[in-house]
């Protein structure tokens, strides 16, 4: 069975700084993986390489067997760690923009999520709070029927009840033919979403495993395992 993502001996340097150091990570389909790691561990760098925003690396990355590039942009849905909506657009203009940009975009699903998250499609992005913009971004990214969703800290700005709502939407709409890689520092709040955890530290995957398996092996919650490993 072809894996959704394979990173093998992946090394990325920024000048002399080694951000990723022979990192290995394999994601079969049907996984929702929490990418955890302290500040500067290399999470964003890894995600940017997967979505081909960064290109100069050693080792190999494949998404459904293909090297990141124009071809994989069609099957990877990416939410960056910064605002990525045009402020002058209304929500419905953002939806049209996504629809025109991605063949796999599901219009009905986007509108359903926008409604479920209590947003007015006629509202302009610049008039929305940070948490509201995050709701729009997540709706747009999940309205694509992608093979891999790469989400860089998507739940940082939303309030706890919206976070729960978004997590439910993700779980309800999750297609087991795809996988999700989601970075977060909110380990305790978000761990119920994950099937697996990857802990990155100093540019390597220090620990990877299924949630239940890790909790059983270590006999403690994921957040405690994380604290013990990364100090
Ligand atoms: N453009 C850049 N130029 C130079 N160094 C960089 C650049 N981007 C990241 N780095 C360095 O690479 C390392 C990994 O950074 P990265 O942003 O991938 O970490 P992260 O795990 O996403 O951190 P955080 O949790 O704080 O978002 C850090 O030491 C960082 O300083």
From TrEMBL:
GO molecular function: ATP binding; ATP hydrolysis activity
Keyword field: ATP-binding, Nucleotide-binding, Transport
InterPro entries per the UniProt record, alphabetical: AAA+_ATPase (IPR003593), ABC_transporter-like_ATP-bd (IPR003439), ABC_Transporter_VariousFunc (IPR051782), P-loop_NTPase (IPR027417)
SUPFAM superfamilies from the UniProt entry: P-loop containing nucleoside triphosphate hydrolases
One Pfam family in the UniProt entry: ABC_tran
Domain ABC transporter: 5-227
Protein name: ABC transporter ATP-binding protein
Taxonomic source organism: Paenibacillus sonchi
């Amino acid at each position: 069975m072809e894996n959704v993502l394979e990173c093998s001996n992946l090394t990325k340097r920024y000048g002399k700084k080694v951000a990723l150091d022979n990192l290995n990570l394999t994601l079969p389909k049907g996984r929702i993986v929490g990418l955890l790691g302290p500040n500067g561990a290399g999470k964003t760098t890894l995600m940017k390489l997967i979505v081909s925003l960064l290109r100069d690396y050693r080792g190999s990355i494949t998404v459904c067997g293909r090297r990141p590039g124009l071809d994989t942009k069609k099957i990877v849905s990416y939410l960056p760690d910064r605002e990525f909506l045009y402020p002058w657009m209304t929500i419905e203009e953002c939806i049209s923009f996504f629809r025109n940009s991605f063949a796999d975009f599901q219009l009905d699903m986007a509108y359903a999520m926008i409604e479920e998250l209590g947003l007015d499609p006629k509202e302009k992005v610049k008039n929305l709070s940070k948490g509201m913009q995050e709701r729009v971004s997540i709706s747009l990214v999940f309205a694509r029927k992608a093979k891999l969703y790469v989400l860089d800290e998507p739940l940082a700005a939303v309030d706890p009840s919206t976070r729960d709502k978004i997590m439910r939407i993700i779980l309800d709409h999750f297609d087991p033919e795809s996988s999700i890689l989601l970075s977060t520092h909110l380990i305790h709040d978000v761990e119920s979403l994950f099937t697996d955890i990857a802990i990155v530290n100093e540019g390597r995957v220090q620990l990877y495993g299924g949630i239940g398996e890790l909790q059983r092996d270590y006999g403690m919650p994921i957040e405690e395992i994380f604290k013990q490993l990364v100090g």
